[in-house]
Amino acid sequence: MKQALQGSGVRDLAMARPAVARDRSASRRANLSMVLRLLRDEGPRSRARIAEDTGLPKATVSHLIAELLDGGLVREGEAERDRGAVGRPGQAVEVDGGGIHGLGAEVNVDYISLLALNLRGEVTFERRTPLDVRAVGPEAALDAIAQLVTEGTAALRAQGGNVVGVTLATPGAVDMDAGIVKYASNIGWREVAALAGLRERLGPLTPELHLENDAKLGALAEYVLTSADNVRDLVYVTGQTGVGVGIIAGGRLLRGTGAYAGEVGHLRLVPSDQPCACGRRGCWETTIGRDALLRYAAEPGDTVRDPTIDLDRRLAELRDRAHAGDPRTLDALGRIADHLAPGLALLADILNPRLLVLGGHFAYFGEHLIDTVTTQVRDLTMAPDLGGCEIVLSQLGLAGTARGGALLALDTVYQDPTAVMASA
Amino acid sequence: MKQALQGSGVRDLAMARPAVARDRSASRRANLSMVLRLLRDEGPRSRARIAEDTGLPKATVSHLIAELLDGGLVREGEAERDRGAVGRPGQAVEVDGGGIHGLGAEVNVDYISLLALNLRGEVTFERRTPLDVRAVGPEAALDAIAQLVTEGTAALRAQGGNVVGVTLATPGAVDMDAGIVKYASNIGWREVAALAGLRERLGPLTPELHLENDAKLGALAEYVLTSADNVRDLVYVTGQTGVGVGIIAGGRLLRGTGAYAGEVGHLRLVPSDQPCACGRRGCWETTIGRDALLRYAAEPGDTVRDPTIDLDRRLAELRDRAHAGDPRTLDALGRIADHLAPGLALLADILNPRLLVLGGHFAYFGEHLIDTVTTQVRDLTMAPDLGGCEIVLSQLGLAGTARGGALLALDTVYQDPTAVMASA
């Protein structure tokens, strides 16, 4: 986990490199950030090697590491014998920050959730609560999210932790800078000033707040996990009531000019007359989204369709039925596979990712989906052998989005380590 | 033109930033590169401002500029009064290099072409020759391209010019590193070792050779032109016998894991039974590509369908007919618009670019295409108001691809200015 977080993920995603330093304190900040990001992205290493990798003088590096040690952001690790070095092995330094936490809070159609990661990449808080978000409306949903954030923050602070930020994740198109959810049809939000609402509810001790689309955060979380394998191009497909994709291209999150990139749920790809929350009919997500899966798989009275039961339990139940060979469940998964394939093929042709990662409910049905889907997509794409693309299941299940939010919140520490060093 | 080349285009596209300097000569190269790219991307400025922008000491900047002046890569420009400066205005420095040329050589279905740009962004050589590339086969096509490159290089060298590189552009998927065209169905090339073939034909004085897909180079050329407007996300649609797209996302070219990104010509988007060069039927490019346009617009014996006539003249003739209100031509353009729209909508939904640029033959029919297409795409995309995307015509027509190739060839100078300074 920790290794993954250090494996180059958030690197280029959140913000540009620090500007050229204009004064001494800016230069110190930039250097601390450079060293900390090096340790995250390239792994533990000795002071000598840090000097070599950054081009900074050895004395400067020693001073910077001393500051980071003081601030609790790094720790001494194991001895590292530098490549080819003859003398005494150097002491490696690695990212620490076990008491520095980022939070990801997700609002989706049928639940809200919160996940905290510390700087080491360890999950330090996790909770998911069923909620009919569309029915209760934005104000009540923000109440519930604020409550969850308050509980999580209080628990982490009670242990002496420092919560550096919270990312709110929602489906649909968001205006990150303004903190506004522009349009999320499945939860019925339109022009909701989500961050202002959250800030008001959380009061004076509010950590820094961010807002991002669920699919983009899911892609970020997957990218951090897989970056150890040198994957630079990845498409993450959410499996929720709605379906969207998050695109990592060349190691960077693709947002598009209006942050609408990846809004594929409403493409018309499969013949269908099913009404969609957007007001149209036959949108792709009505054929592969959660409602479609549950509708294909079970009658209305079935427990798997009871929204008051935690989603994870219901999906696990469906997985059990598939394992047991239940014909209706298997038929439902076959239909999902058939409807998934044309969209995945399209994404493979246009984006040629190294990985197509299926998240959310898709991630529950590995063996019953992946082979069928892969075969179909292979037939449909133009590039031979899928152009080097592999279709895989998310290892994060329903937690991917909140995890991506926590990573984004933590990235501010990498951009400016001094912000948390004062308080550490 | 010059302004455009300096306007931030190739910046992130070709290669990563220089590695941290490990020795003095590497550090000098990196600094020369940084200064030259600053002048290209941000425009002319004084030495004082260069020092401020790069963080380099003023004395170092003066020394670097002296070297670049010596090498003919920059020149003294007009006096620049620094913002807020009270004293004497500084002398601005700007990119020069009128004698340093990059070449772009394009092989397409019905022509080959060559275009040279100098470092100032001026077109210094341009030629296009009709050729039935599929019929003559790869060897003869490479003969013809080598002949064109030899002529262009000789002409530029006769004026004392320095040709730093040649980019070969072809349709289809290419392996840049190996210099191999993997598969280009419309010209019938499969696993053609194009760069090795070209190198053999050009002999000992061969400039550095590059290989890239036509749509990606077209996107690069468009991006350089539009970057002045702060466009960071752009999709370029080729209008050739085949149709592909080049994607610029967040200011960088999106290639995909196997360089197949943008291979959209074979999507099935429009009901059609037309046979495609790829062996299938009904591919998108068979409904909007050059053959479709000419088939819709004219009978087989018509001059616009005579491949021995230069393509530009034939397309200009069709444009004249459209202007004159010829019903068959207008009907053909209406069909092209109808078939373009679903694909453009798909690209807008997935990538949310700021600009969708229509190149090649599409660029000839502005008023007869753009409004109809825009209206249809607006209806089909999910994001309100096209998500901030604008559909525009390429200003480069058939020259975009070769121009992108010339830019890519020139980028090596920005990466390592010392390579040409020795010989300047």
UniProtKB/TrEMBL annotation, chains A, B:
<dbReference type="InterPro" id="IPR036390">
    <property type="entry name" value="WH_DNA-bd_sf"/>
</dbReference>
<feature type="domain" description="HTH iclR-type">
    <location>
        <begin position="34"/>
        <end position="76"/>
    </location>
</feature>
<dbReference type="Pfam" id="PF00480">
    <property type="entry name" value="ROK"/>
</dbReference>
<dbReference type="InterPro" id="IPR043129">
    <property type="entry name" value="ATPase_NBD"/>
</dbReference>
<dbReference type="Pfam" id="PF09339">
    <property type="entry name" value="HTH_IclR"/>
</dbReference>
<dbReference type="InterPro" id="IPR000600">
    <property type="entry name" value="ROK"/>
</dbReference>
<dbReference type="InterPro" id="IPR011991">
    <property type="entry name" value="ArsR-like_HTH"/>
</dbReference>
<comment type="similarity">
    <text>Belongs to the ROK (NagC/XylR) family.</text>
</comment>
<protein>
    <submittedName>
        <fullName>ROK family transcriptional regulator</fullName>
    </submittedName>
</protein>
<dbReference type="InterPro" id="IPR005471">
    <property type="entry name" value="Tscrpt_reg_IclR_N"/>
</dbReference>
<dbReference type="InterPro" id="IPR036388">
    <property type="entry name" value="WH-like_DNA-bd_sf"/>
</dbReference>
